Amino acid sequence: MPGDLTFDYIVVGAGTAGCLLANRLSADPNNRVLLLEAGKPDNYHWIHIPVGYLYCIGNPRADWLYNTEPDKGLNGRSLRYPRGKTLGGCSSINGMIYMRGQARDYDAWAKITGEDAWSWDSSLQDFKRHEDHHKLDKGADPETGHNSRFSDMHGSGGEWRVEKQRLRWDVLDSFADAAEQIGVEKTDDFNSGDNAGVGYFDVNQRSGWRWNTSKAFLRPIKNRKNLTVWTEALVEKLTFDQADGLRCNGAVVQRAGQSVSVSARKEVVLSAGAINSPQILQVSGVGPAGLLQSHGIDVVLDAPGVGENLQDHLQIRAVFKVAGTKTLNALASTLFGKAMIGLEYVAKRSGPMSMAPSQLGAFTRSDPARPHANLEYHVQPLSLDAFGEPLHAFPAITVSVCNLNPSSRGHVRIGSGDFRDAPKILPNYLDTEEDRKVAADSLRQVRQIMAQPAMAAYAPEEHKPGVQYQSDAELAKLAGDIANTIFHPVGTVRMGRADDAAAPLDPHLRVKGVAGLRVVDASIMPEITSGNTNSPTLMIAEKASQWILAGA
């Protein structure tokens, strides 16, 4: 540990947002920056092999191992709730899908907060600032040296690499044809502001390896003398000075068996994610007063919205047996098959070991009357009873579908005053009639796609949930039985207008009522984005870094 434990900026959490923030804030050599990560370095080999997410989720080496509380909408079930605990955070264990959401998401944020900088046109520039998109690689277009059709929407030369997937499957191509037959147009870019369509996802990989935010934003600056990175450093609480108004001036950190106090001259930036950021605030005395007092915590600031407004995408996994084609169920069922998969990856960095958890995607409407796509499909050439279970012995595909804009809201609340205890997570999935109706309609649409002529050659047979379930009530209850999180929790320390008492943050992500404290991660979203949430979190950090530096 350095002798001087006073820094200009302390960033709590070296995940998706924290790694980018550390890069941007330390670019000025006059800024001393401390980056704190509760997990270990990202030197675990399964982090970097794309299929390694199977060995990272549920593994204390890389996952916080959270579980939800029993959820009424899931008929009393609890879910495993993975969160990254290593350098790179969730970008080290997630599905690697590059997805921004829809332009309307960001325009809605601008309206909710009264800050035009959150609009799509403004946020697009922040997405492009760190992007390195394969479609703009030299030679992508033989005439111009790049694909000019995409240059308005994508960036090149940034730290965040976006590539095509390195495999395809005949049965997934046929599913795309079947989706087109019900009116879902094919697309080669889900990230232009309107993601309606069907196609293969782009992924955050480089040459067949996972590309996490630690590799993207920390490795290139590892020799900066003004950046200090502590791993296995768990924040016990934030500290405050009330001599001249309430100000956050640092944190107490448990490291190497010691409690160490670190100080920030300018700002403490909380980037611990939608679960851990509200937990840290609450154990530090910032949160709903009644909750804090019930656990013996002195109230520093009564902020009722801290931990509320939890939103997540719940995916309903339908499994269809197929015939006349091989799926990963068969390819990975024998030692020989596994050996061939391994050899292909070693030789070419392609094949199933380079796979994102989901390869083909589609965005469409659960009801033609809806003004925009409100469903996202993740289609996989494999099937299993539950995550972590063996693959089925029969050839099958999984068609997962989720409601992009759930109206249900949950919460994250501490269960004790001990910073080491896991918080209580209750998503309240399927809590509204609207969400239950969308769940039923989405399952019907899955069946409609699978019944199209393009899929006929595979003689698809519904294995799960089963054709006996037909009514809205049956399908909604069934969704509660078989659905699972798609790992997109957001919204638990949301931003809002200055006069919005339920919003803990102002539009520039500063904690209202506390100087020197900002939250920058997925927890700040007032409403969840219409797609995967990792890349929007990077955009949030990019925008916030400019505000932080300008404010200094």
From TrEMBL:
Domain Glucose-methanol-choline oxidoreductase N-terminal: 273-287
Cofactors (names): FAD
Record Pfam families: GMC_oxred_C, GMC_oxred_N
Protein keywords: FAD, Flavoprotein
Listed Gene3D superfamilies: FAD/NAD(P)-binding domain, Glucose Oxidase, domain 3
Biased composition regions of type Basic and acidic residues, renumbered to the chain: 135-152
GO molecular function: flavin adenine dinucleotide binding; oxidoreductase activity, acting on CH-OH group of donors
Region of interest: Disordered: 135-157
Residues that bind FAD: V235
UniProt family annotation: Belongs to the GMC oxidoreductase family.
PANTHER family in alphabetical order: CHOLINE DEHYDROGENASE, MITOCHONDRIAL (PTHR11552:SF147), GLUCOSE-METHANOL-CHOLINE GMC OXIDOREDUCTASE (PTHR11552)
Protein name: GMC family oxidoreductase N-terminal domain-containing protein
